[in-house]
Specification:
heterodimer, A: alpha/beta, Rossmann fold, B: Rossmann fold
């Protein structure tokens, strides 16, 4: 069976004056219809670059240096600009963090939506407008007819993000990539947007890639996650399993450092140091300088992802035998 | 009167409005053929009162535009209030001149959200840290100041041998440590922290929260902590104040506000926190959107979105009434015993 999206051994590099920087180093994952995958990590882990690479939005000096990206059974990482246009913004839509940056401030919502439809479909303006109205209703915008004639600044942040989602839906995409879609929004608004995205995956039969730094959000929305560190996936598998029994020391540290889980007022467990710069990724396991389990082997050889927990999760660590049998949610 | 043995700082009936109407020409509008002048004011704080007790961490939470940052800045004297009082110990400080304010400035310090914007890029760390001590202790020798710098840097976990470097040479987490060091340099007793960990990654955030908790324990500090991150609040707070549209809704000890929120807005806000490992959030959906602080609703500011509002809520502004020994709640329904 072919998956909706299959990424195999993807490698992204940035060509700089002093040589190439590897931003994404040999990552693989897949996604099916109606499935939700979370890509989690801290700033600089490579999660946004992964999203951009899928729809080939990498701008110079970034380029795809290796690997395959198959979407609906077709290789899309080396398409011409024209062929790519059939897919990007059409079969695959992307939603960004800041709706004020995505929406054009000097055009009405209606103009922007009609424009998008006309770029991808051979329909008349009236038909495009009707389609826009239909999508605004889908994202629960109150009085959508009125909203079509308004400008982005006349709306709240949550409303704008709903409009961005409505625009993403205009072409009936099979896949939505959402890059930190609620990071700029308040929690009550965030809860509503996440609920909407979850519902749309079901009703519109779409796949969703949710890129975020927020483990709690990911754990509520997605079925599977991939945890990234310094350009690699270091742990992946079913969300519920990873959240309950993380096996990679970085995932363990990340979950332990969340304030919500511990006794109030107690010291938070902290991961010493910080994520390495891409110019100076440590040899062996990139996490070894910060790891409480590191051995000489970790400094010498890079661990590959191996199946644990009966194949429900995969982790890239030399010392997996030491991280078995912990349940972080029940301290 | 607040009891000065337990209360470090109290605010009473604090009101802060910002006039955003611009110049005279911007204010003029034509209405029914007549030229009229209209002013536009943002009503950021409306009659807020509470006290901060010695040694506690009082967190103020709320969504964007609820007035929490304005509250922090008014408390520390960066904004003069339009009405109301700020009382530090037993002395009113909101109307003091800059000179009269000096001794209080040393006792109160502030930490800001963005460590990229709040450290002067043209000063070395040593100079950034020296400046407040030398300002407040003019007779201090250079050697004594340098020793103090090294001492405090050590306490916040930044190697003192980096004192001659500039802020851009440090990561975000390190910079926030330097901001904390700057606040600690004058040995304050009260620190206002406005979103101090919001710009940081999770693993770094834990380091900074631990540092803040350690400093509090070692120095007996009192914190006014402003944040929108409710899991951070739950972890570090003694008591929590919830604000909505410039008004205090509820104030209660952290454990009781999270276990048994009373105000309908608090209930909705807390139900929306994403929790790790919970399959689907069961959040309370509020109707409508937050109104603008330019045109405040009549009666209870929350009535338009409240699931329990009735006629009284639309007409009458609820006052914050004591709830137990440590709390306040401003809701007619709660006062009537119906919540």
């Amino acid at each position: 069976m072919t998956h909706l999206l299959e990424v195999e051994n993807l490698e992204v590099r940035f060509a700089l004056r002093f040589g190439d920087l590897t931003a994404i180093d040999d990552i693989s994952f897949h996604l099916d219809k109606k499935e939700k995958l979370g890509i989690v990590g801290e700033s600089g882990a490579g999660k946004s670059v992964t999203g951009f690479a899928i729809i080939n939005l990498l701008s110079k000096p970034g380029y795809i240096a290796g690997g395959r990206i198959r979407f609906e059974g077709r290789e899309i990482s080396r398409l011409s600009a024209e062929a790519l246009r059939q897919i990007r913004g059409n079969r695959i839509s992307m939603i960004f963090q800041d709706p004020m940056m995505t929406l054009n401030p000097v055009l009405t919502i209606g103009t922007q939506m009609v424009e998008t439809v006309l770029a991808h479909r051979r329909v008349g303006k009236a038909e495009a407008r009707a389609l826009a109205l239909e999508k605004l209703r889908k994202v629960y915008i109150p009085s959508p007819e009125k909203r079509l004639d308004q400008y982005p600044h006349e709306m709240s942040g949550g409303m704008r993000q709903r409009i961005v989602i409505a625009i993403a839906l205009l072409t009936d995409p099979a896949l939505i990539i959402a890059d930190e879609p609620t990071t700029a929004l308040d929690v009550t608004i965030q809860a509503g947007i996440m609920e909407l995205l979850t519902e749309l995956c079901e009703t519109e039969e779409m796949g969703l890639i949710l890129i975020t730094h927020d483990l709690a959000v990911v754990s509520q929305v997605t079925e599977r996650i991939a945890v990234m560190y310094a350009g690699r996936i270091i742990e992946t598998g079913y969300t519920a399993d990873i959240v309950a029994h993380p096996r990679h020391p970085y995932t363990i540290g990340l979950i332990n450092s969340l304030p919500g889980l511990r006794q109030a007022g107690s010291r938070l467990e902290q991961i010493p140091g910080m994520m390495p710069n891409l110019t100076a990724i440590p040899a062996g396991c990139a996490f070894h300088p910060r790891c409480f389990l590191a051995t000489p082997e970790c400094r010498a050889a890079r661990p590959e992802l191996v199946a644990v927990n009966g194949g429900r999760q995969w982790a890239a660590c030399h010392r997996l035998e030491l991280t078995a049998g912990r349940n972080l949610l029940h301290h | 009167m607040p009891n000065p043995t337990t209360s470090l700082l109290s605010i009473r009936g604090l009101v802060k409005h910002f006039d955003i109407s611009g110049g005279l020409l911007d204010q003029l509008t034509l209405e029914k053929g007549r030229l009229r002048r209209r002013r536009t004011t943002v009503k950021a704080l409306n009659d807020v009162s509470f006290e901060i007790r010695r040694g506690e961490t009082l967190s103020v939470v709320g969504e964007s535009g609820c007035g929490k940052s304005t509250l922090a800045r008014t408390v520390i004297g960066l904004y003069p209030p339009n009405r109301g009082q700020v009382i530090y110990g037993d002395q009113r400080i909101d109307h003091l001149t800059a000179r009269q304010m000096l001794p209080f400035r040393r006792r109160m310090q502030m930490i800001f959200q963005d460590p990229y914007a709040s450290l002067n890029p043209r000063m070395t760390v040593a100079r950034i840290l020296e400046e407040p001590v030398i300002f407040h202790n003019p007779g201090m020798s250079a050697a004594a100041a340098a020793e103090k710098v090294a001492d405090v840097m050590d306490q916040v976990g930044v190697d003192p041998k980096w004192a001659d470097r500039y802020p851009h040479e440090f990561s975000g987490g390190q910079r926030q440590r330097i901001s904390i060091a700057r606040a600690l340099m004058v040995d304050p007793e009260f620190i206002v922290a406005d979103e101090p960990v919001s710009a940081l990654d999770v693993s770094i955030q834990a380091q900074i929260l631990n540092l803040l908790m350690d400093a509090q324990e070692q120095r007996g500090l009192t914190y006014l902590f402003i944040t929108h991150d409710l899991s951070v609040v739950r972890h570090i707070s003694t008591r929590v104040a919830v604000m909505y549209l410039g008004t205090l809704c509820e104030l209660a000890p952290a454990a009781s506000i999270f276990n048994q929120p009373r105000h309908p807005y608090t209930q909705a806000l807390l139900s929306a926190i994403p929790r790790l490992g919970e399959q689907r959030s069961r959040h309370i959906r509020l109707k409508g959107e937050v109104p603008t602080p330019i045109h405040l609703p009549s009666g209870c500011v929350f009535h338009g979105r409240c699931l329990y509002a009735d006629e009284r809520c639309r007409q009458e502004v609820p006052t914050a009434t004591p709830l137990g020994p440590d709390g306040l709640v401003a809701c007619h329904r709660v006062a009537e015993g119906k919540m």
